[in-house]
Amino acid sequence: MDYPIEVALKRPVTVDGQTHDKLVFDEPDLGTSIAVEEAKSSAEQTVLLLAGMAGVDRSVMMKVKESDFREIGKRVLEPYQAQIAGQQGSDAGNG
User: Fold this and answer.
1) Read out DSSP for 60-74?
2) How far apart are CA 88 and CA 82, in angstroms?
3) What's the alpha-carbon Rg for the chain, to the nearest Å?
4) pLDDT number for residue 76
5) Spatial CA neighbour of 3 closest among 20, 28, 21, 22
6) Quick one: which of 52, 56, 61, 59 has its CA closest to 80?
7) CA-CA distances (angstroms) from residue 3 to 15, 22, 36, 37?
8) Could you tell me which of 77, 67, 55 has the C-alpha nearest to residue 8?
9) Where does residue 47 rank: exposed (0-12), middle (13-18), buried (19+ CB within 10 A)?
10) Cα 64 to the chain's mean position, in Å?
């Protein structure tokens, strides 16, 4: 998976007077990974992961329209989850 991944939003999002017409996703940092682990639901984990990868507040991700979310899922979330699953599979049996 090659970062950064830029996703243009069909429906820009405005939060606190700042309009986002695209989001640029990068590999999550340790703080994001910890926040995702501590989240109580899978939906909250997804919001925190994508917000952290895009370097925006979770409130921005909460405003993303469904059509844009599907595109983010296809281009960012699904490849990231596949990458993580592959890494976990290759770690099996070590230790």
Assistant:
1) HHHH--HHHHHHHII
2) 10
3) 14
4) 97
5) 28
6) 52
7) 25, 15, 20, 22
8) 67
9) buried
10) 12
Q: What is the pTM of this model?
A: 0.89
**Which residue segment(s) compose the domain that 9 sits in?**
5-91
Q: What's the structural domain count of the chain?
A: 1
CB atoms within 10 A of CB 27: 14
Q: Which residue carries 């405003």 as its tokens? A: 63
Phi-psi region of 41 (alpha: psi -120 to 50; beta: other; left: phi over 0): beta
DSSP string, 14-47: EETTEEEEEEEE----HHHHHHHHH-SSHHHHHH
Q: What is the pLDDT of the chain when averaged over all its residues?
A: 93
